[in-house]
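Worked example (supplementary).
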Amino acid sequence: MKDQVGGNHKRARFQALCQSLRPDLLRFAFWLSRDRALAEDVVQETMLRAWKAQDSLLDEAAVKPWFLTIIRREYARSFERKRFATVDIDELVAQEEPMLAAAEEQNLAELRAALFRLPDEYREPLVLQVLMGFSTAEIARELGLTGAAVLTRLFRARKQLRVLCGEDTSLDPPE
Amino acid sequence: MIDCTRYRQAMLAQPHDADPALREHRESCRDCNLFTERLLRFESGLERALRVALPDAAGEVVPLRARSPPRRRSFRTGWQAWAAGVLMALMVAGGLWLGVPGSSLAADVATHMQEEPQAWRRTDLPVPSAALQSVLRDSHLRLAAGLGIVSYANSCGFRGHKVPHLVIQTESGPVTVMVLVHEHARKPVQFDEQGYRGVIVPVAGHGSLAVLTQGPDTDLGTIEQIAHRVQGAIVWTQEPS
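After joint prediction of all chains, the assembly is encoded as:
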């Protein structure tokens, strides 16, 4: 009886955790894959794996990085399962147009299309920093990079993004 | 001493970096101040751009998922079936949730400001003490003396909670403070949104505090100083969560 109550409590906690994190995880997976359907698949698979492996989550404060690590692995696995064709960015942008469009602001749609055009190595740390609120050290840990390498990538990401968006870059520093 | 190139490189990597050396440089350099303002505006757009609203109704989930080849799974045990149930619930709940356009905390604060424009007037008339106490009491806090005239106090609905919305008359004009006990910020964030400029600062155990001004006249350094003053003046009457 006591075990059952404990089990129910654990399930409820896990469910609440998943529910609160799922929107951001979906967004992260979307920006990682630039494919909404694939993002849905990856997050669904991630939730299942997380449920099975929940005992390995020792610190609940670290739950976000824990989920993100599973998402990144699961995304990498999707490459093993399928052989993807060469990516045509214009095609990707057209395919995900409903996701990228922001009726309220044309600028946002352009910014989203520009994000699609950023190389993965720049887009991913940027998404981790801006969307997920990760510190440089956390990004470095997640991506297996040094702190300096992360900062360089973040710098280049914004620099390229600003050019792609036609921002006034007259005051931007050289590389 | 940091130079302009180093400053801008650092800011492009971490626009919300609160390093005092960076702040010192920004305050002494007009071009870098201008650069920062443009960058923060861009950053605010970037944050909103990343928070895509998945235009998903619950019913759409199935056809979308059908795009990928179905995977065979056998649900032999109770917990697996339960996990699948949770997932289905999350798909539905998440789909509905994501149908609402996503926005950042700063954007939501700025949007809320537009609902109460009358709060921004310059005045030397304080809000009646009883009204102020009532607003503060609901959120388990009080304000120490010396903060300045509180000219507006209201318990506002914000992201599903009642939060104190105060306006304090400062030497820089009216400054709005929203005490966001339910919004946890990991680090201080500066923002420039919809004509409002301000900061969101974490408050240990009590969520966060949004402090903002209207228009471009007050620099972010001054707003940060005001935020620290406000933070110092808040006396919590309930233990941190």
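Two points are worth noting when inspecting this output. Chain A has a mean pLDDT of 84. Residues 1-84 of chain A form a domain with the Rna Polymerase Sigma Factor; Chain: A fold (CATH 1.10.1740.10).
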